[in-house]
């Protein structure tokens, strides 16, 4: 047996809003993805992010219901610099209508760190290493 981790799947309530959100973060979805029930974007290293609408999931799992207490998934986006964390955070709030979970700050573990919420309330961490005092 040679199993390998291949994809991250998320159920979304609004495909158009989710595709727009993740495109703004740099992912590439096929043309017309906004109207599909299932879409995929290739991630660095060959993994994929798969989005399925609630309706699509219900079509093969009739008893499925979305979580009642918000998102249960968190994704992380590495930025090139602390300034990019700040700029991307601001851009996502202003241009993409994202919600802020945690404003950018210098974390004790040595990263500029912030958390956005996607349209379904899933956390999306933005981070970059802080400069060292070397």
Offer a few descriptive terms:
single chain; 134 residues; 2,3-Dihydroxybiphenyl 1,2-Dioxygenase, domain 1
Structure notes:
The protein has three helices and seven strands, in the order βαββαβαβββ. With 134 residues, the chain is α/β, with parallel strands linked by helices. It folds into two domains: 7-60, Roll (2,3-Dihydroxybiphenyl 1,2-Dioxygenase, domain 1), CATH 3.10.180.10; 74-129, 2,3-Dihydroxybiphenyl 1,2-Dioxygenase, domain 1. It has a four-stranded mixed β-sheet with strand order 4-7-6-5, covered by helices on one side. The chain has a three-stranded mixed β-sheet with strand order 1-3-2. The mean pLDDT is 89.
Question: What would you say about this model in short?
Answer:
With 134 residues, the protein is α/β, with parallel strands linked by helices. The chain contains three helices and seven strands. 22% of the residues lie in helices and 33% in strands.
Average pLDDT: 89
Question: What topology, given as strand order, has the largest sheet?
Answer: 4-7-6-5
Count of individual beta strands: 7
Please tell me the total number of domains. 2
Uncertain segments are none
Per CATH, what is the topology of the largest domain?
2,3-Dihydroxybiphenyl 1,2-Dioxygenase, domain 1
Termini, distance in Å? 46 Å
Helix content range: 10-25%
Q: How many helices in DSSP terms?
A: 3
Radius of gyration: 16 Å
Question: Which CATH class of the largest domain is shown?
Answer: Alpha Beta
The CATH homologous superfamily name of the largest domain equals 2,3-Dihydroxybiphenyl 1,2-Dioxygenase, domain 1
Major β-sheet, in short? 4 strands, mixed
Query: Could you state the order of secondary-structure elements as H and E?
Result: EHEEHEHEEE
């Amino acid at each position: 047996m040679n199993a390998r981790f291949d994809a991250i799947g998320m159920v979304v309530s609004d495909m158009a809003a989710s595709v727009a959100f993740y495109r703004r973060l740099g992912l590439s979805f096929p043309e017309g993805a906004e109207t599909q029930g299932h879409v995929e974007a290739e991630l660095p290293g060959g993994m994929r992010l798969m989005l399925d609408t609630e309706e699509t999931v219900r079509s093969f799992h009739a008893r499925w219901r979305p979580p009642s207490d918000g998102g249960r998934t968190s994704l992380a986006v590495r930025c090139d610099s602390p300034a990019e964390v700040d700029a991307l955070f601001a851009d996502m709030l202003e241009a993409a209508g994202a919600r802020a979970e945690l404003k950018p700050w210098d974390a004790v573990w040595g990263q500029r760190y912030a958390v956005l919420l996607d349209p379904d309330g899933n956390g999306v961490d933005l981070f970059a290493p802080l400069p060292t005092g070397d």
